[in-house]
Design brief:
The protein is α+β, with helices and mostly antiparallel strands. Helices cover about 40% and strands about 20% of the residues.
Length: about 700
């Protein structure tokens, strides 16, 4: 018995003594408010670290894990259901194929109750079940208890839970107290007598002493801002090639370089002109910042709106018709006339209005391109205003650079191609691109509404038709209103037409049933893998059948003489799904997963109950008690005890005898990093397995 107590003591120190990597981004404070007339309110306030959020109780099914809050007590009677108080965020999740609702920074959970017998005190217990995530990882689902005593006599002020340094009295029947944390974060573990500690701590696992130090990888931070700056810049360059803008380039540059007696001053004015173009495009994003400041969650709300996405689909089709030449989209002529008249002011003010006039009169060509950037930003991120600012800055920067360079080096104007029918070809090509992008918004509306009409294969088939139409147009087999009756098909058009046919061939493979996703270039555009005519949920992960018990995986690994890839995951883990679909599906990586390792996918949110003799409770101090009742609870604690980590996804390569091969990794990461991590561990094991 003494040995057992010592073993459990060691277990707890291993659990809490090196907790630097175990994340605890949510802090709770439990209070009970006396509302008078024998009514009380149990309030649990949660405060999240920057970048972290917890899901709402209203989270749709088949997405993340909704928060649940319960208040119980022998002498209390609940009044209504619990409510959430805070700023709720709503956005569309590509991984889950639907809306997700969550709170960041802070949220409060409130439950009203009354005393059955107002003359007697009541022991009140509140329990919260929740999951917290950031942009890269999700932590294991957690269950905490808070205990408070309500005494009705003269209870007119709020009472706050006292910080406790040991197990909460009468909260659980226990037979042993293992140990406590020191100082303010005191923690003790209470357990039932038959809990086998070997199910938690594997003595041979030591993350501080991996067998090799190769293959260390890390999750990369999303760089959306720079992506949109780049996309905006490319969009600006494309817009310069359209009939509305290209003919104005030599005229405008010549005005500054030849229209001024002082050539230096002319070049300086041209550079100022370019700067004003950049400034005007950036200023176009200001209204979105104002709207966001008034209603901060509005873009998250509208991005998941079925009707908004349908509206964007219609708008993009409308833009395509304009590019095809069936009609023009222009701003009222009075706006251009007023701006043009203001140019007469001369000086810097006149130059500003010249730049504004250019932006206005070119709207029929630039409008659809800017609309594409707007639609992509509004339905693709929670920080719409900043993304639009970067996108519009990139767009304006392209124009500013071109006008500025040509002003500094006017001789380069002679090398520009002459205006002609090729400019209309650019517009028509953009029309086909607009049609293809329009389908993305229709798909999103389909996913949010859960009608699932636009299957992955149907989406691909429509794209094949669009790409085929583009190829036929480039090869001169069809024409549009503004095309010449007998257009001359240049070599460039023929090459692009052949490339279009090649893209059609590339798309066709997406129609063929497969255990793993194809068309990796279109990841994030196509509907998810499960929205398919051929999807079968019983096929496992990419056709693989992982073990869901670490100890069974060990037995299998010993028989097959392979290392174990421990995958701490969750059914509600969005980044885990992204890793499986976009990273694991890489042919080189999938080959390693299928042939060189035994995959142990341990779900930290598995709700299946543990046997009664293996359940336990952990007192975290401050009145917080963590329950370990389910298989998911066990694997969550198993991860914390052995790997000093509580985020998902989390990956570790382990030998069959339980030794860590190389440093574990967490979060969503690139294919290259994950492949490096796998190859490092697998190659080391193959080289050294016979020398054991």
């Amino acid at each position: 018995m003494k040995f057992r107590n010592c073993f459990l003591l060691i277990l707890l120190f291993l659990t809490i003594g090196i907790n630097a990597q175990i994340k605890n981004p949510v802090k709770f404070k439990f209070t009970i408010n006396d509302l008078g007339n024998n009514q009380y309110e149990a309030v649990l306030n949660a405060t999240m670290d920057d970048g972290w959020h917890i899901y709402s109780k209203d989270l749709p099914k088949d997405t993340g894990i909704p928060t649940d809050y319960k208040v119980t007590g022998k002498n209390i009677e609940l009044i209504g259901k619990f409510t959430e108080v805070g700023k709720k965020h709503e956005e569309f999740s590509e991984a889950f194929g639907g809306k997700i609702l969550y709170y960041s920074n802070s949220v409060g959970f409130k439950q009203k109750f009354k005393l059955k017998d107002p003359t007697k005190p009541a022991d009140v217990t509140s329990e919260i079940k929740y999951q917290t995530c950031d942009d890269k990882v999700c932590l294991a689902p957690n269950t905490l208890e808070f205990n408070q005593k309500v005494t009705p006599k003269g209870a007119t002020e709020n009472t706050v839970t006292e910080q406790k340094t040991g197990p909460v009295k009468d909260s659980v029947k226990t037979t042993e107290i293992i140990t406590k944390r020191p100082a303010k974060t005191e923690t003790s573990i209470t357990k039932t007598s038959k809990l086998d500690p070997k199910q938690l701590k594997i003595e041979s696992i030591d993350i501080k002493k991996p067998l090799t130090d190769c293959g260390t990888a890390s999750a990369k931070v999303d760089e959306n801002y720079w992506t949109y700056l780049f996309l905006g810049f490319i969009g600006g360059l494309i817009a310069l090639l359209t009939p509305c803008v290209f003919p104005m380039i030599p005229l405008t540059v010549s005005f500054f370089t030849k229209g001024s007696k002082d050539k230096g001053k002319g070049k300086r004015n041209a550079l100022i002109y370019g700067f004003f173009i950049l400034l005007i495009f950036v200023l176009l994003s200001i209204p979105f910042h104002i709207i966001d400041g008034i209603a901060g969650n509005i873009f998250n709300q509208i991005s998941t709106s079925v009707w908004l996405n349908i509206a964007f689909f219609i708008i993009f089709v409308f833009f395509a018709g304009s590019f095809f030449g069936y009609y023009d989209i222009t701003l009222p002529s009075s706006i251009a006339n007023k701006s043009s008249k203001a140019e007469e002011a001369g000086g810097i003010i006149g130059i500003f209005f010249m730049a504004l006039t250019l932006v206005i009169v070119s709207f029929s060509c630039t409008g659809p391109i800017l609309g594409s950037l707007l639609g992509s930003a509004v339905t693709g991120s929670s920080n719409v205003p900043m993304l639009l600012t970067f996108a519009l800055a990139g767009f304006g920067m392209a124009w500013a650079i071109i006008f500025g360079l040509l002003a500094l080096f006017p001789q380069a104007l002679q090398s520009l191609p002459k205006s002609g029918g090729w400019m209309n070809t650019v517009k028509v090509v953009l029309g086909f691109v607009e049609l293809a992008l329009a389908l993305k918004f229709l798909s999103k509306a389909d996913l949010v509404s859960k009608t699932f009409f636009l299957k992955r294969e149907l989406f691909i088939a429509i794209w094949i038709i669009i790409a085929l139409g583009l190829a036929i147009y480039l090869l001169g087999l069809i024409r549009f209103p503004h095309d010449d009756e007998k257009p001359k098909i240049s070599v460039t058009r023929k090459i692009l037409g052949v490339l279009g046919i090649g893209f059609v061939i590339y798309l066709v493979q997406g129609l063929i049933p497969s255990d793993r996703p194809k068309l990796q270039l279109l990841s994030g555009i196509l509907p998810p893998m499960n929205v398919s005519y051929f999807h079968n949920e019983k096929d496992g992960i990419l056709g693989m059948h992982p073990e869901h018990d670490y100890f069974k995986a060990v037995e299998r690994a010993k028989k097959e003489d392979k290392p174990i890839l421990v995958d701490f995951t969750g059914y509600g883990c969005e980044n885990c799904r992204k890793m499986e679909e976009f990273v694991w599906s890489d042919p080189d990586i999938l080959s390693i997963l299928q042939n060189d390792v035994v995959l142990a996918s341990l779900y930290v949110d598995d709700k299946e109950e543990l046997p009664e003799d293996q359940k336990t409770k952990i007192d975290l101090g401050d009145g917080q008690i963590k329950k370990v009742n389910t298989i998911g609870d066990r694997w969550s604690l198993f991860q914390q005890v052995n790997f000093n980590n509580n985020s998902q996804p989390h990956y570790a390569l382990i030998t069959p005898d339980g030794k860590v091969i190389n440093a574990p990794v967490s979060g969503y990461m690139s294919k290259e990093d994950f492949k490096k991590f796998l190859e490092c561990g697998v190659n080391y094991y193959k080289k050294n397995k016979n020398s054991k």
